[in-house]
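Q: Start with the shorter request: fold the first protein.
A: Done. Sequence, then structure:
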Amino acid sequence: MTARLEQLYREALVWDAHAGVFPSPEVDLNLLDEWRQLGASYVSINVGFDVMDWQDTLATLAAYRRWVLEHGDRFVLAGTTADIDRARADDKFALSFDIEGMNALNGDINMISLYHALGVRQMLFAYNLNNAAAGGCHDADSGLTEFGRQVVREMNRVGMIVDCSHAACRTTLEIMDESTRPVVFSHSNPCAVWDHQRNIRDQQIQACAATGGVIGLNGMGIFLGDNDIGIDTMLRHVLYVSELVGTQHIGFGFDYSPDIDVDIGVILRSRPDYWPAGQQYDTKGIRHAGPAQLPALIDSLADSGFGDDDIRGFLGENFRRVAEHAWNA
């Protein structure tokens, strides 16, 4: 980067809307130092997904919450955007928790306020397959159920970001129609650039933008292209979304995880239906872009004509705007 862009990056709010760390009480959260050392300001870290029992989600959340609070010299559990501002001022790294899918509610709407009180600030409605609230992207699109509509309203009430990643098309449109606050796709790429069931259609991108929301572009190679995480490939996704809905609706949710010493193969092998055949999940050596790619991507964005304000928006200000509406209400 040029000296000007280096300064922009150092001073910018850098927001990763979803980390792909496998949720388990066994995970050593010192891995979060990788984001911190790369200049990130905030990340949302997953504490559960629909493949897990809701009790396992609570156990993971309890372990992660305790760890973060015990390491307050480096990390801040953020519940508001003001918490993130204070963390940056104190040279600390801010994070909050997210949950991928509504199985974690165990059919009980009251669980939402409990999760919120424990630090969850973002919830997805499904993880690939249908559940009691919503339809998943790898399943028959059942739409948003009545329980799902109650969930949207309760998330709006308590102050959680409504997240449509991993849900099916019709379902996401119904979620966005129901929500009174901006909605996001925290880690999803446009189908028009790379056709994959986990990616999203123009109609979904436009509907998200109409709520004031943000598309967080995913760094996984099989969602960017043919296991391609090159800067030019990532740039194509940014360019496409910016031309479709404008730069104020783009951010990053890399879905990235450092290497961890947890055997995730056990759960993957136990429920292969969540990652169906024909969708590249069996690709050997799936590549993954993460925060380390941001300096090179910023260079390419600047070379492509994006201004400093656009780049600041991509890096974090766009997601911050959504959080201001959702968390601080």
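Q: Next, the second protein, separately.
A: Sequence, then structure:
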Amino acid sequence: MTAATQKLFTDALVWDAHAGVFPSPQVDLNLLDHWQQQGASYLSINVGFDVMDWQDTLATLAAYRNWILARPERFVLVGDTTDIDHARAEGKFALSFDIEGMNALDGNLDMVGVYHALGVRQMLFAYNLNNAAAGGCHDDDRGLSEFGRAVVHEMNRVGMIVDCSHAGHRTTLDIMQESDMPVVFSHSNPTAVWDHQRNIHDDQIRACADTDGVIGLNGMGIFLGDNDISIDTMLRHLHHVSDLVGARHIGFGFDYSPALDIDIGAILATRPDFWPAGQQYETRGIKHAGPELLPPLIDAMAASGFGDDDIRGFLGENFRRVAAQAWHA
């Protein structure tokens, strides 16, 4: 990095909108040190997804919450954006939780408030397949149900970020029309750059920007290109979104996890419906860019014409703006 971009990175709020750590009470959360060592200020870590039973999501949330709260010298479990500011000032890592899909509610709207009270600050409406609330990106996508519409408003009320990643095209447009708050795609890339069912179309990007929301670019190689995590490829995705809706609506949600003692391949093989054939999930050695990509990417962003304010927005200020509204602080 140049001296100027190094100072920018060191001083910036660095926000990763979604960690791809497989949610399980058995996960050693010391892996969170990886993000902080790479300069991250805040991370949303998932505690469940629609593949799991809702009881397993609660068990994972309980384990993660207790582990973090037992280490107040290292971590802050945030309730609002002021907690992130305090954590940065004290040299601590700010964390909150997200859930990928509405199966975690077990059909009970009241569970939104329960999860919020336990530290969940972001929820997705589907994980690839349809559920009682919403349609998934790898399914026939029947759109947002009446229950799903009620969930949007309850999330707005209690103070959760409404997240459209993994949901189907029609569903995301329904969500963005329904929400009274800015909406995000926490970890999704533009289809116009790489055609994958998990990526999002230009009309979805425009609709997100119309809510004053943010698209978090994903670091997984099969969503960026042909298992390609190069700086040039990431930059193409970033420029496409910027050219379409402006720099105000871009962030990063790397969907990244350090190496775990869990056989992810074996897990994927147990539920091929969630990760269907023909969508590159069978790729051997899927590459995955994480926060370590940021220093060379910042240099590349600066060299391609983005100013310091744009880059600070990409790194975290854009997501912070959304969170300040969604979290009511």
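Q: Describe the second briefly.
A: Residues 308-326 form the longest helix (19 residues). The CA atoms of residues 41 and 294 lie 13 Å apart.
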